Every structure is written in C-alpha cells, then in structure tokens.
Amino acid sequence: MDKIYICGHRHPDTDSIVSSIAYAYLKRKLGYNAIACRLSECNSETNYLLNRFGFDAPVLLEDARVKLSDLSLKHPICVNPAATIFETLQLMKAHEQPFVCVVDANHHVAGIITRNDLADVGLGDTAFGIDLLKKVNLENLSKTIDGKIIYEDEKMHLNGKVSIVAFSKHEISNYEVSDRIVIIGDDAQSQKALIEKGAGMLIVVWADAIEDSVIDTAKKYHCPIILSGIGAMNTSRYLFFAPEISYVMKKNVMCFSEEEFLEDVAKRMSRKRYRAYPVVNASKELVTCILKDHAMIYQNKSLILVDHNEFSQSVPAIEKAEVLEVVDHHRIYDFYSKKPIMFRNEIVGSTATIITGLYIENQVDIPQNIAGLLLGAMISDTLNFQSPTTTGKDFRMAEYLEKVSGLNVDELAYSILFMNANHEARSVSEYLKDDVKSFDLEGYQVIIAQVVIPSCAWMESIHESIEDELKKYVMDKSCDLVCLVFTSVADHGSYFYFEGKIANWFKKDFPSYVFMEKLISRKKQIVPLITEIIQRNV
C-alpha cells in the first residue's frame, strides 16, 4: 500500500505536530499506510508534551517530491571485478535479473554488466574472445570448466586462440597450436607432441589423470595443464566465460544519489539508452539500482495537510504532490487540487478539536496517551481556552479528552503554559524559529511569530534587544513585514513588535513595549488587523 504523509505547517506549533500524530494513528486504524511528519524542528513546548506522553518527534519531511531513497527498491545483485563472466551469468539466472552491478572492496560502483553485454561474449566477433582469453586466469578457467589444475607455470604464454584437436591418435601434424589453448583427449603421446609444438596450455577432456611424462614435458615447455570436468563441446564453449567480468563490464557508469528526486532522475534517464542505473549513498556506496521503466511512471508523494491549507506554509514542492485531504481551522487562501478531495475546515480553536471529532465519527477509541497529546494541543492553541477562537465544540472535545486521558485540564494547562517559564535563557532569534507562520496579505509577504510568556513583567528583560534582532531577521527572510507577538495568558493580552519596509504603517497603532489587552489570537484577531491596516495604506 502506498504511503500517505500527514504533515502540519512549516515552523510547526504543538497543534500542528499533535494533529499529524493523532490523525496518522486514526488513518492506520482505518487501514491506510499513514506516516506522521514534521516540516522542521519541534519547539520546546511540543517536545515537552511528546516526552510526557511517550512519543518521538515525527519524521522530517523535506520535500513533496519523491527521492530515490523513498522508493522500495530491492537490494542490488552485485559481484566484485574479479568474478568470472560465467559466475556472473549464473547469478543473473538465479535472480532472474538482466543486469548486475560490479563493486569494489569498498562497495563503490566499478561498473555494470547486462545480459546483452554477455551475449556479445558468446555471439560477438572472435577477435573479442581472443583478447579476453589472452588475459585469462588459470584458476578462473579451471573453476569455470569444473576442472582441476594438474600443472601451472608462471611463464605461461597465451595468444588467446583456441584449438580443438581431433581425437584420433598421432594425427596432430596439421594443427597450428603455438601459444594456443589446446583441447585434447586422453592420449599421452599426442599431449606431449602438442606441448613440444609450443601449445600455450593443454585442457584435457574425458580423462581421469595425466601421465607423469606429460607433466615433465609441460614443465620443460612452460605449458600449464588442466583436467576438465565436462565434455569437449562444453569445455570449448565455457572457456570464453572464464575471464574476469572487469574485462567486459561498462565502466564510468552514470550513478544517481539516493537523495536525488525521482522526477529529475527520470529526465536524465530519458536522454540515455540504458535500462538500469546504480543508486549510491553519500559515501558513494551502492545501495540499490533503478530501472528506467520504473522511473518513467513515477508519481510524487501523497499528502494529507493538517492545521494549514496554504501552499506557502506547506512542504516545498507541494504543488507537485497529490493532496488527498485537508483538516484545518484557518482561512482558506491559495489552496487548489487537481481532483475532488476531503476538505474539513471548521471554525474551532484548534485542529486537535477536529481530529478528536473524527475519532468519534469513525468510532475508533483514542489511546490514553494520544488523548493526552490532543488535550495538550487544544490547550496550547486556544491559550487554555481564553482565545476568542474557542468554541463550544472545543470545550466539549476537551471534556471528552479529559475523561479518556484521566488528566485534569487546569493542571495540564499550567504545566504546558509555564513549563518553559525560564525564557530569559533564550534569545530573540530562537523565538523566531518556534511558532512562525508566513502569509500573503494583499500582495505583501508577512511573517508573524507568536511567543507565549509567563507574564508582562518578564518583558523587561528582553525589550531592548528585540529591534536589532528583527532587522536582521527581515534581511535574512527578504519579507515585507515581520511581526513578533509576545502573548501573556495570565494578563490576557500581547506586546507587538514590527520590522520591515511597511513596519511604519503599524507602529502607530501598535507601539513597541505597549501592552495590548485582549489581543491574543493570531488567526482571529492579529491577521485580520494587519490585513486591515495594509488595506488602509495601499
């Protein structure tokens, strides 16, 4: 079954991560191969909840396109360069594979060999076979013909040609055998005569042993002798498959990195004629092979979006993915799909509220630890149900989760909202990595980061350093406006800081280090207010 990746938005908050985990579990219970994902690092609040309820952070999803590493490809069949052509053919046959990778001792790709390449050995020009047999290794040759080396000699002299001597006695005068591999039967007198005529090697068939006098002659003329374990016809055929595969393999093979995107690989393959290509890891080690036919019919990842629907807030290259569902509670902005999908968008305080409802609708029991996560996400996203986005459904779902998890909402809220009370240990730049969202508002690129703080008194320790950090951030992100919001749940309001080329439009209505009461919801209050001010000034 194809994988379905469930992910929240970039710079994920607790609601985004928890919704991914909880919805992935529900989809698996309903029979889908769903995987919870994140688009960047989890913030400290989210990590606290994950640790508390025994969950690891979801896997990191870097792109909606399929990488080669995402594919379920078989482990490659491979040989080392010293393997014989015969061994390689046998391996191809055993695994019913028309190609084999050749790798060195470090598992780096040295070459690739296909069945068509090996057909050239048996059916190609005889000059090619002669060149191969000039380099043949005595041990490999013996192994290929199931033979036994009777005598080997370091001064062996071969020209690569082969002669099969007729098996009638004493009729060898008409044969040219100098420096050749000579196949001969069980006739000691003829064997010695061939050696004396300059044979480069004797391969004896249909014999159980070699006479000592023949061996003595072989030593004198530096002529190795092999006793073949198969008949004359197969011996003559198999000789040409005894050389090392390194002599016939394709070298300088085009390899692909497992981190490459399949759509890019397919384009490069379309310009080549080969059928299979090795895939290597960062250390250049062979990990698999990909067939051209496989690459040509690729499709990108299948996604379910939770806690967002704007492509600008989602995984890179999402426009190339197949979006199957959306479960969200934010505005609908730049979303589109190629075919009808399930789009669940509700006016509630958190996506976790909607996910909880989906469990109930599908009659799937919520595990106690997931119930704790969902309750924590609701508390986080509604600022302990104080946000104006909070609805009756949020309260009803929270009550249900409280019973399933066995937790007390107020106690959990206190631990979540104030577990990271030592904010002084963090820099402004760190706050700009946590709960951050990008918006296209009236054609302007706006980034809004929101930080929950213990109380208004805490702001004194950080106020003076904010402006410089925001200026650096704007330059780095090349946005039109960045808004950093510090929200105090205890005091039920927020501080606002603006920087960017349109920041002056906002500083009159939101002066720095001035507490704005009852402004705590980014979705329902802050984004609409910023949009209104932009419209006023355009």
State the main characteristics.
six-stranded parallel β-sheet; alpha/beta
Structure report:
Strand 5 (99-103) and strand 6 form a beta hairpin. Helix 7 packs parallel to helix 8 and helix 13 runs antiparallel to helix 14. With 538 residues, the chain is α/β, with parallel strands linked by helices. The model has no long low-confidence stretch (mean pLDDT 89). The two termini are 51 Å apart. The radius of gyration is 37 Å and the shape is elongated. The strands form five sheets. The chain has a six-stranded parallel sheet. The longest helix has 16 residues, at 14-29. The protein is built from 19 helices and 22 strands. The chain is 35% helix and 20% strand.
The best one-word shape is elongated
Mean pLDDT, to the nearest integer, reads 89
Helical content stands at 25-40%
Largest sheet: 6 strands, parallel
SS element count, helices: 19
Q: Structural class of the secondary elements?
A: alpha/beta
Radius of gyration: 37 Å
Oligomer: single chain
Short structural summary:
The chain is α/β, with parallel strands linked by helices.
Reconstruct the topology from this structure.
Blueprint: E1 3-7, H1 14-29, E2 33-38, H2 44-52, E3 59-60, E4 78-79, H3 85-95, E5 99-103, E6 109-114, H4 115-123, H5 126-134, H6 138-144, E7 148-151, E8 162-164, E9 181-184, H7 188-196, E10 201-204, H8 212-221, E11 225-227, H9 232-238, E12 256-257, H10 262-270, E13 276-280, E14 286-291, H11 292-296, E15 302-306, E16 322-328, E17 342-345, H12 351-361, H13 368-381, H14 392-405, H15 409-418, H16 428-431, E18 436-441, E19 444-453, H17 466-477, E20 481-488, E21 493-499, H18 504-507, E22 516-517, H19 522-537
Parallel strand pairs: 1-2, 1-15, 2-3, 4-5, 8-9, 9-10, 10-11, 12-13, 15-16, 16-17, 19-20
Antiparallel strand pairs: 5-6, 7-11, 13-14, 18-19, 20-21, 21-22
Helix pairs in contact: 1-12, 1-13, 7-8, 12-13, 13-14, 13-15
